[in-house]
Amino acid sequence: MSDTGRSGAFTASMAFSDGGHAGRYTQRSTNHDSIRLEFHEGLGVMRLPNAWVVAGVAACLGAVFGAGIATLEAASRPWRAGDFSPRRVRPSETSPTVDVPETHFAFGSVGVGATGSHEFVIRNTGENPLELTRGVTSCTCTVSDFEESEGGSTTAKVVPPGGSTKLKVEWRGKGDGGPFRQQASVLTNDPRRPRITFVVEGTVIPTHRIVPTAITLPGLSAGTSQQATVRVFTFGKDPPTVDSLTLDNEQAAQFYSLASAPLEPAELAAETGATGGFQITVEIRPGLPIGPLRQTIRAVFRIPEQVTAEIPLEGSVSGDLALTGQAWDSSREALMLGTVSSRSGFQTSLFLIAKGPHRANVKPSIREVVPDSLQVVVGEGRAVGSGNLIRIPLSITLPPGSIPVNHLGTPQAPAGRIVLDTGHPDSPTLTISVCVTIIP
Prior knowledge:
Layout: E1 10-18, E2 21-29, E3 36-41, E4 44-47, H1 51-76, E5 98-99, E6 104-111, E7 115-124, E8 130-137, E9 140-143, E10 156-159, E11 164-172, E12 178-188, E13 195-205, E14 208-211, E15 215-221, E16 226-234, E17 241-247, E18 256-262, H2 265-268, E19 276-284, E20 291-302, E21 306-318, E22 321-324, E23 328-329, E24 334-341, E25 346-354, E26 365-370, E27 375-378, E28 382-384, E29 389-398, E30 405-407, E31 416-421, E32 429-439
Parallel strand pairs: 6-13, 15-21, 24-32
Antiparallel strand pairs: 1-2, 2-3, 3-4, 5-7, 7-11, 8-10, 8-12, 9-11, 12-13, 14-16, 16-19, 17-20, 18-19, 20-21, 22-25, 23-24, 25-29, 26-31, 27-29, 28-29, 30-32, 31-32
């Protein structure tokens, strides 16, 4: 072992003997050279591999190995290109072939409440009939010639070789404005293109503002009339021209009166940017059925494009009749039966309370029941306390074996109902909402 005595450099060596073989390790280091180990045996020198060389070889081997795995996966896994699936099924020479010139339509802009539509063409350039079935959609879509008279239906269509059909996509601007994108899909029996997705997109721009956004009447009496107003501010090029005012429930239209009038300049000044506007007056006449009040007022007007504004009208109608019971939810004005098993059925009781000078005239009878399996039996009324109230029991039964239905009271599953003819002169009809879903 020796040391040169110079700072920053040294040489270390070690001699050894093993089985008659002599050798020496020598280790040198300087400020400019990295440490190196050498094995001397006779005239031979064995050096350890350089680290950069090892790293390079490893990288090359890794790249070759990875490329091989990727090649194997690509050979065994079918690939897709958009709606195409060329390797899933081998199309024959006589397979139908779907041809769609366009699957995307940019309509530019549409006003809130305004509508638009576009027709996409679907052709069959193959030698066999092309079968089309309506798939999932996020908008209101209809296929213009899916007619039973041509061998199709509202959801399916067969296009002969060389024939064509059209998919009509309709949309309405909703919300407060902003980007808009909707799509509709069609399923086909073309093995190379089993699904086609059509897209419409654009921008929804504000055209009007409703103040207030809804009419709420929480304490409406069945025997009296009441008025409510709502203002519609518009932002079009021209002042609005009102074409129609309607209600979504035409059966109850006899209890309502709708009228419109232009807003005064001072009223328009309260809404920044408004170029016009009108006021809707709703008059509710006596005689509405007791229970929850849910209507939608639709105002169709032009500014100059046609726009439809929807104003919810909600509340509750009360009078000399009231309901009570374990399953009655007074906050929702509904009979909440929940989920009922068709195997076991369900039974509960509801009570109709009559008061006022016409209480003795109240003798309910069943006019309508939804769902059909719901059984309602009206019991005999009895005076309560001093006789100022009469309580009439209603037995509500869903027998075992009832057909599964969904009436939970959502937009997709509207509530069921029990409609009674009461005999009361001011409230001749009583509608009881029933929220229930029947499972197998």
